[in-house]
Task: inverse folding
């Protein structure tokens, strides 16, 4: 029962470095999202996807890129890491339903520190 | 001003007490209201899900939504030390094209003392 798998779990980057956070789900969900969690801020949406080949920006997209070539995978790319991107990153997936919102399943998170 | 406001706590209660949590929001388009529980260093997990106004009960948990006041609550009866976690309220407009985007409150940390 893998659900949503994120790798790596921890990462330290130097300012200016780039990296990709991986996210994979095995539930055949159409929707996938990336959130970041900062103390007292809850989770804020970075980017989301409603299906393979379709992505859109969320609340805090600057400095991040995404692509979705398959239903299963939704990687998040940091183009040039900055200390302000130090955060815990969560990937989530959910199935689509014409009736409205559905349960989001979250991964275990990636703790990123940019020094 | 944030769309969803939630008291950060921490909220400390003795075992067996009732825990009362709440969120206020400003966006009248929200129709789906959820409570997620997050244990330390883990991802959030759905606890309660409510559509529009009303109450919903599931075991020791009761969720209430008052859309006229833009106010939602979660009550935990007979609280246990295992209920110690951060509780996040989340909301959605539920439109299919929106990709199930959720707007979260900041979370309330709850500590249930034995």
Result:
């Amino acid at each position: 029962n893998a659900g949503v798998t994120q790798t790596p779990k921890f990462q330290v980057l130097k300012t200016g470095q780039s990296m990709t956070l991986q996210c994979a789900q095995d539930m055949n969900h159409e929707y996938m999202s990336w959130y970041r969690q900062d103390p007292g801020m809850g989770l804020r949406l970075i980017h989301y996807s409603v299906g393979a080949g379709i992505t859109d920006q969320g609340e805090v997209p600057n400095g991040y890129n995404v692509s979705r070539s398959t239903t299963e995978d939704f990687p998040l790319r940091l183009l040039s890491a900055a200390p302000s991107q130090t955060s815990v990153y969560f990937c989530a997936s959910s199935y689509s339903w014409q009736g409205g919102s559905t349960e989001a399943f979250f991964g275990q998170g990636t703790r990123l520190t940019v020094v | 001003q944030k769309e969803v406001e939630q008291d950060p706590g921490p909220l400390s209660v003795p075992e067996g007490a009732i825990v009362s949590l709440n969120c206020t929001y400003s966006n009248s388009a929200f129709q789906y209201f959820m409570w997620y529980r997050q244990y330390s260093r883990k991802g959030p997990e759905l606890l309660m899900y409510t559509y529009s106004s009303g109450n919903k009960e599931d075991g020791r948990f009761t969720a209430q939504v008052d859309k006229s006041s833009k106010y939602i609550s979660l009550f935990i009866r007979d609280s246990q030390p295992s209920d110690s976690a951060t509780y996040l309220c989340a909301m959605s407009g539920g439109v299919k094209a929106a990709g199930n985007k959720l707007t979260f409150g900041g979370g309330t940390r709850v500590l249930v003392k034995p």
